[in-house]
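Researcher: Next entry in the queue.
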Amino acid sequence: MLVETQKSTLLLVDMQERLLPAMTGGAEAEARCAILLKAAKALSVPVTVSEQYPKGLGRTVPGLAAEIGNAPVFEKTAFSCWRDQGLKDHLIVHHEAGRPLVILAGIEAHVCVMQTAADLSAAGFGVIAVADAMASRAASSHNLALERMRQHGVQVVNTEMVVFELLGRAGTAEFKALSALVR
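Model: Structure for this entry, 183 residues:
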């Protein structure tokens, strides 16, 4: 399946102030998440954000918080976003409105992101895991998470693939603006 603007939502998982600095590849993941957020905004793809226990782990990092706009932010303690009732209900509404694809990015790849991906796939969502927009404390954990996600039927892609699939064609103002971000 290709990522389509009208059928997709973006779920940004736990890109938080006290968590991100401990990640291997955290700066790249943050930069890639910013590109995904800009693309979602430009192409009217709904965004949902989760924060794992923000009282202890802080809020979404400022650079991404500035890109989120009015997107709903859900505080959670469950590792999987699907196991938080508010988030689950929110994602179901998108699915029922004809958006069965979830573009998934965030941290930690091998904990909250992987568990969310597995649960969403089992629930009938198409899950698109953006590998370069994720990070873990250890690179080996990130790699294992991607392997495990594939075992759950998740498509693993990179940011550039998502942006160009969402765009669908060249020659538009959106193409001009967004292609510059990934080149």
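Model: Helices lie at 26-42, 54-57, 62-68, 85-96, 109-122, 139-151, 159-167, 173-182.
Researcher: Noted, moving on.
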